[in-house]
Design brief:
90 residues, Arc Repressor Mutant, subunit A, single chain, globular
């Protein structure tokens, strides 16, 4: 049973009844780096993209997942296994 909430990446298609998050590989990469505490500038330098492009990715992630701040973004990511439990450890 696949349900979606408006224009989000949340889809109810997992057997446990929790929504699965459908993100592109680049979105997952950006999300992981956000979770590791990297700034937009650091992410851009590491990926060879501009700071503005990183900002757009971050904005699109938050809009797509229907969250309003980075704390909610990280919480949702942890809940769905997109980040390891020790994601902040360097």
């Amino acid at each position: 049973m696949a349900r979606s909430r408006g224009n989000t990446a949340l889809q109810w298609d997992r057997e446990d009844g929790k929504p699965a998050l459908h993100l592109t590989p680049r979105q997952r990469e950006i999300l992981k780096m956000i979770g590791m505490g990297h700034t937009n500038r650091e992410i851009g330098e590491a990926l060879g993209i501009s700071v503005r492009t990183v900002e757009v990715h971050r904005f699109n992630l938050m809009r797509r997942l229907n969250v309003r701040n980075v704390a909610q973004l990280l919480r949702l990511s942890l809940q769905h296994g997109l980040l390891p439990r020790n994601f902040g450890a360097r």
